[in-house]
Amino acid sequence: MPRFKNILVTGGAGYIGSHCVVTLLEAGHEVIAIDNFTNSVEDEDGSPALQRAEKITGKKITFYKADLLDKPQINAIFDKHPVDCVIHFAALKAVGESMQQPLLYYQNNLLGMLNLLEIMRSHNCYQMVFSSSCTVYGEPEHLPITETHPTGSITNVYGRTKYFIEEMLKDLSAADDKWNIISLRYFNPVGAHPSGLIGEDPTKEFTNLMPFLAQVALGKKPVLTVFGTDYNTPDGTGIRDYIHVMDLASGHVAALNLLSQTHIRLKVYNLGTGKGVSVKELVNVFERVTKAKVPLKYVDRRLGDISAMWADTSLAKEELGWSTQLTIEEMCTDFWRWQTMNPDGYPKKTKKTEIVVNGKS
């Protein structure tokens, strides 16, 4: 049995959260998951993603529909469950939306984290894995990006919220040596669980590349819009470090293992493959493994996007004992399996119609 038995997972019903929950359960942890369904799908019984995670693992998940902005609600969950460690995924996460609604992002991401940290402290829980992002690096000064690369010169509001939280964690761990925190800077998660039962089902228009690509391949959308063809890259399209979501999930278990063995106060690690793949290259691999055709439409760059980034992952390999195992072909194959098995994503909650008579429902 792992030393940290009870893990609270915020944003546990989301894309990365649900895959991480599967990996945690398989590693022998007990999971208490919370989610407010901003970035995830709700059905009549709660979270279809977590219900399927239970099916995959044969284990039970304790779930609460809860919002980190509701402090008494979160406090009550901590009162009820002895939490050994928190994995904090919950955040608004769309770059484009963050540029249009900055106050929404600052309120949700920063206040949510402040509430969580205060409640953790009041319950003597000082162990955390934080879901950060490679966006904290801004436009890279050098490639590949190591953890010592400068942060803070960020091109979008979403990335700034992650950066501000990392600064908050630095100050917190410096002021109080009880804290033991690992911040994982993700590169670009794609793919799905190999069972095809869980995967990415976007709830907003602002979405990641892979779900849009699959919707075009299924004929549900006419073309894939490629933002920018004039980047300083071999084919002119943006380059990213795409990582399989199951490799990302295993990185969290590796982080938990390190936290349980060592008091490190605060440490950051890159989670990526260490290889850059352009948008055009990703589309070509996707078409090859799925035998589907994806028409492209080229438009101008988006505000806040950068040209190229990929990780140096040697620190995670050395200190977490973690490295990626899955290829870009497997990312595309697994996502296509999820998408073809679930062309409309998860079953959605149906809205009940109320009949109003004389002002009474």
What can you see in these coordinates?
- The protein has 361 residues and is an alpha/beta fold.
- The protein has one domain (6-341): NAD(P)-binding Rossmann-like Domain (Rossmann fold), CATH 3.40.50.
- 38% of the residues lie in helices and 16% in strands.
- The protein is built from eleven helices and 13 strands.
- It has helices spanning 15-26, 48-57, 71-80, 95-100, 102-122, 157-175, 209-217, 245-261, 279-290, 314-320, 328-341; strands at 6-10, 30-35, 62-65, 85-88, 127-133, 180-186, 188-190, 224-227, 239-240, 242-244, 266-271, 277-278, 296-299.
- The protein has a seven-stranded parallel sheet, sandwiched between helices.
- Strand 5, helix 6 and strand 6 form a beta-alpha-beta unit.
- The radius of gyration is 20 Å and the shape is globular.
- The model is unreliable at 352-359 (pLDDT under 50).
- It holds the Pfam family GDP_Man_Dehyd.
- Keywords: Carbohydrate metabolism, Galactose metabolism, Isomerase, NAD.
- Homodimer.
Write the SSE topology.
Elements: E1 6-10, H1 15-26, E2 30-35, H2 48-57, E3 62-65, H3 71-80, E4 85-88, H4 95-100, H5 102-122, E5 127-133, H6 157-175, E6 180-186, E7 188-190, H7 209-217, E8 224-227, E9 239-240, E10 242-244, H8 245-261, E11 266-271, E12 277-278, H9 279-290, E13 296-299, H10 314-320, H11 328-341
